[in-house]
Design a protein that fits this description.
Order of helices and strands: HHHHHHHHHHHHHHHHHHHHHHH
Strand content: under 5%
Oligomer: single chain
Radius of gyration: 27 Å
Distance between the termini: 71 Å
Largest sheet: none
């Protein structure tokens, strides 16, 4: 329940529940970790730090692992500067370890601040720490993210020469970047090197390869790799299936996307909302309007597809379902819906939706539909001029 409230940003209720758990003696360190991550992910740094005071209140120790958790979440939210500032503020209250410095390094790399990343790297060594493979992979990924590919390759070669030796994650980082650039010759070379190094390719590496070849429209190689990995005892995971479904949808191969979805189900992997969203896109290509609407984003895609097919009446029906379920769609999507309904020539539908939005308390959205309805009526008046003013006569 704490996790759900955190994701929904119901922070007051989340904290109230935490305090209620404290009174009943049900708190664990994991409970505080959930709250800290929720606040940090929402960029509520002060509230995240405020959790430390609650921890003290309920006799929980604020140690290096707790602070590392907070710094890591801030870094993943691209708040590297905030993480560094917080570290400077708290470093007198705990003893940083190698993981602390690696987390700060990752925050800088995510923001493409290589100068600060270099300073942290040197500081880590000066403090007596030896950067491990996780730190090296973080720096490697940071160099590639900042488009310093030649430096990244040199760094990779230094790893091979002096250690730590590149692992499967190191090769995946490099192969993924070359796949994005469409440099499949280099991809194959590094993949062969990976095999020679004794590392066994995992699903992440094969996913990179398949998407790389797929973007080059070499689908034969995609299917061959899919076959090879299964023969070598490397089962596809959920991310791979989603990536392949997305690839096949973008390549306008809806039947192949549907087959891949069936394989996903047969392998026992549960589809995500993202899977359903991509499938709906592929279904519209074949005019197979199977309904999958587990969330507001799914409804948005489904309604948009109906509008594109000229089925504005059904689109209106499903938009009403969204309202009744209390779902909220982004403002620009409402504008798009309104524009499409307007083009369908139904100002009465827009006015009806406006009233329903108003009753649902969505006044801004209601105004959007009113605006488009008025614009639609003005267009109709211009197209159908007053017969008295123009001299036209009815017969």
């Amino acid at each position: 329940m704490m996790s759900i409230l955190g994701k929904m940003k119901q922070f007051e209720t989340m904290v109230s529940m935490l305090e209620e758990m404290g009174e009943k003696g049900l708190l664990t360190m994991e409970t505080f970790m959930i709250a800290i991550k929720a606040f940090a992910a929402a960029k509520e740094r002060k509230k995240a730090v405020g959790m430390f005071e609650l921890m003290k209140k309920y006799k929980f120790k604020v140690g290096v692992n707790t602070i590392n958790c907070l710094l890591d979440t801030l870094g993943r939210a691209k708040l590297g500067k905030e993480a560094q500032a917080l570290f400077e503020k708290l470093k007198g209250r705990f003893t940083p370890n190698l993981q602390t410095h690696t987390i700060l390094l990752n925050g800088c790399c995510r923001q493409r601040n290589l100068m600060e990343a270099g300073r942290l790297w040197n500081e880590t060594i000066d403090l007596g720490f030896t950067p491990d493979i996780v730190a090296h992979n973080t720096m490697l990924e940071g160099l590639l993210r900042s488009h310093k590919r030649s430096d990244a390759i040199k760094f990779f070669e230094v790893m091979k020469a002096t250690g730590p030796r590149p692992n499967i994650r190191s090769y995946t980082i490099l192969i993924r970047d070359f796949c994005k650039q469409g440099k499949m010759k280099e991809v194959v070379e590094y993949f062969d090197e990976l095999l020679e190094s004794g590392n066994q390719p995992d699903a992440a590496v094969y996913t990179c390869l398949m998407i790389g070849f797929g973007n080059q429209k070499n689908m034969d190689m995609v299917y061959e790799l899919f076959k090879v990995m299964k023969e070598k005892g490397c089962p596809p995971d959920g991310r791979m299936y989603n990536a392949l479904i997305k690839l096949m949808t973008s390549q306008k191969m809806p039947n192949d996307a549907a087959k891949m979805y069936k394989r996903m189900i047969q392998s026992g992997i549960k589809p995500t909302v993202h899977t359903y969203n991509m499938l709906m896109k592929s279904y519209f290509l074949t005019r197979n309007f199977e309904r999958f609407c587990p969330d507001d984003n799914s409804y948005t895609i489904f309604i948009g597809g109906l509008i594109c097919e000229g089925r504005s009446g059904e689109a209106c029906k499903h938009l009403e379902e969204m309202i009744e379920k209390g779902m909220k769609s982004p403002q620009q999507d409402y504008n798009k819906f309104a524009a499409d309904f307007s083009r369908a020539g139904r100002p009465d539908m827009l006015e009806e939706l406006s009233q329903k939005m108003k009753f649902a308390g969505k006044f801004e959205v209601s105004n959007v539909f009113v605006k488009w309805a008025q614009m639609m009526k003005k267009r109709v008046k211009r197209r159908d001029p007053d017969p008295i003013k123009t001299g036209y006569k009815y017969t």
